[in-house]
Structure formats: C-alpha cells, structure tokens
Design a protein that fits this description.
By secondary structure, the protein is of the alpha+beta class. The protein is globular and about 50 Å long. The strands form three sheets. Strands 5, 6, 7, 8 and 9 form a five-stranded antiparallel sheet that branches. A two-stranded antiparallel ribbon has the order 1-4. A hairpin with a 2-residue loop joins strand 8 and strand 9. Helices cover 35% and strands 24% of the residues.
C-alpha cells in the first residue's frame, strides 16, 4: 500500500507490519470508508521522542488527505507512541479525557501497563481492547525495552 511507503519516508524502516485484522467492532467509519474495514498495525525501528507525536500526526493527516477520494478517506492513520508505561494515540477529536497538545492535536491515553500487561481504560476504543491487540502491544513493549537496553550499553 502506498500509504505505508509514505510513512516509511519519514519514520524509517518498519520493525513490525501486522496482518490485516478485522475492524468491524463499531460502525463509526462505515459511512465515510465503507465496510468491511481492516486494521493494520505498523511499528518502526527508529525510536522517536514523545514530543514528536504532534508532528507525526500532522504528517499522517496529510497522507490521509492525499489518498482521500471525493472528500472521503480511504485510509485512517492513528499514530501513537508506545512507552514502558502506556500507549498514547494522537487524535484531532477533543474529549474530556484527552489533553490538548498543540496545533489541534490531542493525546488519547489508550492503554496503561500494569500487572505485567497493557490494560484498557474505560474510554479505550473497542479494537484496542481485543486480546490479540493487547498481546501485540505487549510484544512491542518487550522489543522497545530491549532496544532501550541496547542503546544504553
């Protein structure tokens, strides 16, 4: 997919490209994007600072616009930052639990790490609550911690 190549152009080499997962848990995007929908998770090898999340979201918004057809998105990119403690997604949608960052971008605390696993919160999107997604995030966290350890040596 061309959008993946666009992401690689500024985020670098891909570390993980998940299989396509069904994304039919809600009908939120059906009118704009059609149905059935599928989700793919992509992790990049290069570590980025948390404060880069806004700039990354601005770039991904541009990619979404580039692939839109007749004002409807054909791809929806939800960039996030995974850390040892949590997973935070970037969004343009304001809500009570989403702190404003800058330039119209909000932080959505999606998962927290507690008792040896990522855990959803009351507002976590349904697809991020799925066991296979939690396991994927736990695996990415293990890779991240290993990468941090190698970087310190």
């Amino acid at each position: 997919m061309m959008a993946i190549e666009d992401l690689k152009s500024f985020l670098g080499e891909v570390d993980l490209l998940s299989d396509l997962l069904p994304f039919n848990l809600t009908r939120y995007y059906d009118e704009e994007m059609g149905s059935p929908l599928f989700r793919r998770f992509i992790a990049f090898k290069k570590l980025v600072p948390r404060e880069a999340l806004v700039d990354i979201k601005m770039r991904t918004n541009g990619i979404e616009e580039r692939y839109s057809l007749n004002g409807c998105r054909r791809v929806n990119i939800d960039p996030g930052i995974l850390s040892a403690e949590n997973v935070v997604l970037a969004t343009t949608k304001d809500y009570a639990h989403r702190p404003y960052l800058r330039d119209g971008i909000f932080a959505d605390l999606t998962l927290i790490f507690r008792s040896r696993s990522f855990r959803p919160l009351e507002w976590t999107y349904p697809d991020y609550r799925q066991g296979e997604v939690i396991e994927l995030m736990n695996g990415l966290r293990r890779n991240y911690l290993s990468q941090l350890k190698r970087k310190r040596v």
